[in-house]
Amino acid sequence: MSDAVLDRVSDRTQRTTVRGYLDNPWRKPRMLQAVTIAYLAWSLLPVLIAIVFSFNAGRSRSAWQGFSLRWWNGDPFDSLFRDEALRAAMFHTFRLSIPTAIIAVGLGTAFAIGIDRWHGRPARGANFLMLLSFVLPEMILGVSLFLLFTYLLKGVMSLGTLAQWLGLITFQMSYAVVIVRARLLSIGPEYEEAAMDLGAKPGQSLRRVLLPLLSPAILASVAVVFADSVDDFVIVRYLSGGADTEPLSVKIYSAARASPTPAVNAAATVMLISTMTVILIGYLLYRRSSKGQNHDVTSFTQL
Amino acid sequence: MASAGATAEPTRQKPDRADQAAGRGGAWFPGWYWPSFSLPGIVWLLVLFLLPFYTVLSVAFGTVDPLFRTPLPVYQPWYWSFESFSTTSQKFYAGDSIYQQPLIRTFVFVLCASVICLVIGYAVAYYAARYAGKYRVLILVLLVSPFWISYLMRIYAWQSLLQPDGYINDIWSIVSEPVNWLAGRPVTVVLGLVYGYIPFMILPLFGSLDRIDQSMLEAGRDLGASPAQTFRRVTLPLSKPAILAGIVIVSLPMFGDYYTNDLLGSQRTSMLGNLINNSVFQSGQGPEAGSLTIVLMVIVVVPMLYYLRETRRAAEGR
């Protein structure tokens, strides 16, 4: 046998093994696995490090100088729980997000029920308007509302807590509509029709059949809207009337552009804990109230 | 009993027809019943969603008080003057065109960031949908968790890591000279945008890849296609709607983003959002802020309408 033939044979076995590896449908997707793990680390490690740095003993938020509670409670002036401004901001965060969650979900749920059963041109127009507010970049709405309150409604309204509520509810209502409508589509009209055939009045069928069936979606929307309002700073910043109506998120934004201390990390950690807690409670309630139906995490995250 | 049934028959007919007029069979509601549910939301949106846009137009097409430099909005469309608007828009293309750079930069940044989001996001979503196995729930929770962490905190965390004495430079200095990452570097801002918005890309991709029937892929393989061919000719076409939706979902907020650059960049990397944000609170800049907002709206309106049409089509197909 000549060398050329041998070469070709070895070349072929080589190719078969590489091809064989690539063609093997049961091969482990090592590359994809590596990318996914790297992605998850990239996406979550910085946040964990930021949380750890809220316990830094020094002023720096980038160089570790030992553990302490100085920026949480220790420092009499600059720590999160003892700095007047930061403490007020913390309360303002909840003053904004709790009413927003209740009103936005109430309005959104009613809108979703109505639009699900009301057909025709005006209904389509209203639905379009709602979806538009869902996809519009937040900044456009923030600037527009800022101009509305400072010019067109000048004497009627001023910037501040009320303006922030109105802005947040406008922006968040569509989330509740989208979540509740998805649930309405999956329920269908049959249960209500059955209730009415059994003699329930419209109000009764609404209260005793439809709303209980919708409750998982309503709970999920409350959690989502609350968490989103805690984190919001674009609309809230444009509509704040001054330093006393700035919630934690806006304080963090301003501090990050100046000279932040680890107290900012502590403030961000408080926001993180409150949104995570509410989302977790929302998920548990969602799972409980939609018992017997498909309730893995996927269905909650797809909302 | 038979007679009772016979008398019941015609009374049942009548409400059925009325309901069909109201758009729904089986119940007996007057025409205003369901619309009244939506009414509060509609009024809310008219006053606090449409009226603000009208104000933007009135401010942009209004004038400025010559003495106090405060904007004087004009609320009657027939008196609108396009003077300030054309002054602003000329900054994009005429004279020293100081806004041209930020505008081009916005498009380049958004394009680069969306493509990177797609490449990384597709790989991650593919793995989570196909191969995650028993870790599926854990990986999903980790993929979704960035949604519940404030955007601000996530970018702030990177700002800390990228400080001159931060951890990124500690690692970087092993291979090269330390770098000031926050001094207006396009790389930093683009990666910041990717970091901020990639979860919005992964979720629709995951949903779409997860729904692809495994037997489709097996059919492709049985018919002699290589894995690469199966991917190119089965998986990729089936996930195309999700790819387009994902690109729109991440690029819309990127166009209106100013905070990523505020925290990670500088004047040298400012985007359209920064121009708007910087002019909003400045005296005498009201018409300019309004005009820039109109420019931003014009840019995002096409992808927005595309997205709305696609979601409606998907809902009707269901």
Please, could you describe this protein's structure?
The complex is a heterodimer of chains A (303) and B (318). By secondary structure, chain A is an all-alpha fold. Chain A has helices at residues 3-23, 30-53, 70-74, 84-117, 121-135, 138-152, 161-187, 190-197, 202-231, 234-238, 248-257, 262-289, 297-301. The relative contact order of chain A is 0.12. The model of chain A is unreliable at 295-303 (pLDDT under 50). Chain B has two domains: 37-81, no CATH class; 100-317, MetI-like fold. Chain B has a two-stranded antiparallel ribbon with strand order 1-2. In chain B, strand 1 (63-64) and strand 2 form a beta hairpin. The two termini of chain B are 43 Å apart. At the A-B interface, helix 2, helix 4, helix 5, helix 6 and helix 7 of A face helix 2, helix 4, helix 5, helix 6 and helix 8 of B.
Distance between the termini of chain B: 43 Å
Number of strands of chain B: 2
- Name given to the CATH homologous superfamily of the largest domain in chain A: MetI-like
The average pLDDT value of chain B, as a whole number, equals: 84
CATH class of the largest domain in chain A: Mainly Alpha
CATH architecture of the largest domain in chain A: Orthogonal Bundle
Categorize the overall geometry of chain B: globular
Q: How would you characterize the largest beta sheet of chain B? A: 2 strands, antiparallel
Give the count of structural domains of chain A. Answer: 2
What general form of chain A does the structure show? globular
**Given the helix and strand composition of chain A, which structural class is it?**
mainly alpha
User: Which fold does the CATH topology of the largest domain in chain B refer to?
Assistant: MetI-like fold
Quote the distance from N terminus to C terminus of chain A. 67 Å
CATH homology superfamily name of the largest domain in chain B = MetI-like
Helix content of chain B: over 70%
Strand content of chain A: under 5%
- Strand order, largest beta sheet of chain B: 1-2
